[in-house]
Amino acid sequence: MILSYHSNRMERLLDHLLEQLSTPLGSPLGRETIVVQNPGMARWLSQQLALRSGVAANLEFPLPVSFTWNIYQAWLGEMPAESGFDRESLHWCIMGLLPGLLEQPAFAALQRYLEGDSGELRRYQLSGRIADLFDQYLVYRPQMVLAWENSAIETGTQDEPWQAALWRAIVAQTQGEHRAALFDRFQRMVARGDAPRGPLPERVSLFGLSTLAPLHLHALQALSQQTEVHLYLFNPCREYWADITDEKGLARRRARWRQSGKTDISALLDVGNPLLASMGQVGQGFIDQLLELEVIETELFEMPAETSLLGRLQQDILELADRRSADLVERTPLEQMDESIQLHACHSPLREVQVLHDRLRQMFDRLSGLEPRQVVVMAPNIATYAPYVQAVFGAAEGARHIPWSVADLSAEESSPLLQTLSSLLDLSSFRFAASQVVSLLEVPALARRFAIDDEGVERIRRWVRESGIRWGADAQMRGELGLPAESANSWDAGLERLFHGYALPPDAGLAQGVLPYPDIEGSDALDLGRLAALLERLRQWQARLSQPCDAPAWALRINALLADFFLPDSEEEALLQGVRHAMDSLTERCLASGFDEAIPIGVLRCELEQALAESLPGRRFLVGGVIFCNMVPMRSIPFRVVCLLGMNDSDYPRREVAPGFDLMAAAPRPGDRSRRLDDRYLFLEALLSARDCLYLSYVGRSVRDNSASPPLGGGERTDGLP
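Predicted structure:
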């Protein structure tokens, strides 16, 4: 039996969780298992539990996927820590299998797509899209995947035959069981009443999950027959709201009824609160799924204060009220200067951040006791705003300074060293522009490798500017680009001037047609030699990286590249170790999937960047100060002030372009994930997690002609305002 607790306030759910944890487990060494949807929620829970009880120890915070895997392991026995059917392994397996399958008639469309000069990179990208889809099928369409293995077709669409054939080829080549097979075996064991073979946690709590795949819910239901399962659910509304629909959905139903000749029963359907109906479909679907399980519900709802516009809006959602209805025409008076909900139209992202800084300073003066750590600023893609945050918040000094931190940047976005590594891997398109080469020396680890200090970097920058170096390594490189093979203003010509200037007296004049650069003497020659060594090494690696090789050879080659260009300190060494680990993982996946082809540098670069973005995420959530972060599921952690930047109609909700061969998109089912619906629910969660102020900002005017642009949803989100 699952014990579920519903509340519109995370604080109330936390109180009940703390009360539950105060009852000790049977074993003093037993660990509390709290399943969360993302690491940010785990960090907040740890902080709050430590703050309220004095200590937060012996806790584990698994994510739903790993937790479900542990449940399977308890019933099915020993399983490998990693599956050969994970998304990354599938990617390389598909990459290797596609060339041998393209001759089959079912794969004709894929064969046409992969024709052309960039076929290898296209094959890599296509394999990634297919691997991602297959990974979703294993969770959301397990029966379809199992049907494919029995040579059956389930949907009958034109893209299913080639996907089924590809899947059978993957299964034939890959050892072990995938999640759909494990789920099928697990279901049969549970149906027979088989007891788990391994140990189970004594108590499991699931905190703040906004959705779970049906596959995970079935595993949770089976677990609840063996141990305590507590589900803490963030629920915007205390009324039954699983059957409400928004105005657009109501209009679509009316149109279908008219077309089919059926009786129009739209008068019996309820819109309820328009904001909840429009944005709550993810939570609505999850609550619908829970109704199919054996669940005992406990309500922990709390009525928001009605003294502000924000509080009234939250109260209307809680009570499923529509202020547009006749019985709610009378409105409670508000304060004359109610600023609990703010909407700012700006001319650019930079201006958004500048206005935000000014308004936050006003809030710190106006809202009693407000601290920077009680403010969160979210955006659809915080990396877009990170440079502007640095420019505005980082430059503010004295009384204007507000402590701040940016979370959710990838390792490359937050590390100049990894950005430089990405540039080195792209040497095939490196034009040797003066600014490109000099900017490499601004990276401390690279400058240390070539023994060039800060004064040396400034000296080299001055030499490059005054000697006329602009771009191109030499005349040969320009000729290879289809341009006149001339060396004027190239690095070769510039270095020749610099070396002549050191070797000849200041008044030597032209020497063999070269005008010496006059301002190099003494120990300056050391930096000149080091600059020449850097350029020579860049040319060597430009040629070396252009040669494709297999994954093990690439691992050795990347290790050599790191040694040739970087001399890291302890912090930088950890980043480079992450690069080496990513290359080792790539080698293991390729060997396990049987992929032994030569990999071109374009494919290797994409793979390494993606691996680093996932393995070195650079999270800095809840580390103090105003928090800038991405809008991700279950960031419904309560803050006094919640700010949302980039709420542009063209950018949010974020568009999701599903592949044309996505079989789930062709026939969606309850519980399927939708990026667009997730984003709408994220907005609702943000609205309900604000305690004093909800601040919205968007680029509402063109910086060029001052033309207007609408906010998110073209104003739909304001329909439910009192």
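Summary: The domain at 341-412+620-718 is CATH 3.40.50.300 (Rossmann fold).
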